[in-house]
């Protein structure tokens, strides 16, 4: 599925030397997951309807972007 979208998987496997760049990408992903985990309603999906869950997810993305905005101005 990733190849069809033109996305290259960057996965560290056992026995293969780790690449420093791989750690940088992993940090970005882990940080983003932590931000989403900080949003209470998204930590555990209680909503049965997907449209409500997607709305909460969009709201969380907006809040995260707004928090990052002062650093760019």
Automatic annotation (TrEMBL):
A Gene Ontology biological process term: DNA transposition
* Record bears the keyword Repressor: no
- Sequence ranges assigned to domain Transposase IS4-like in this UniProt record: 11-63
| Any single Pfam family the record assigns to this protein | DDE_Tnp_1
Record's keyword terms, sorted: Membrane, Transmembrane, Transmembrane helix
Q: Name one GO molecular function term.
A: DNA binding
Keyword Transmembrane in annotation: yes
Span-the-membrane segments of this chain are 50-69
UniProt name for this protein? Transposase
Taxonomic lineage of the native organism? Bacteria, Pseudomonadati, Pseudomonadota, Gammaproteobacteria, Lysobacterales
């Amino acid at each position: 599925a990733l190849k069809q979208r033109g996305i290259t998987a960057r996965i560290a496997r056992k026995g293969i030397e780790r690449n420093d760049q791989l750690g940088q990408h992993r940090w970005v992903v882990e940080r983003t997951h932590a931000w989403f985990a900080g949003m209470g309603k998204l930590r555990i999906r209680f909503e049965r309807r997907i449209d409500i869950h997607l709305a909460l997810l969009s709201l969380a993305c907006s809040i995260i972007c707004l928090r990052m905005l002062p650093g760019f101005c």
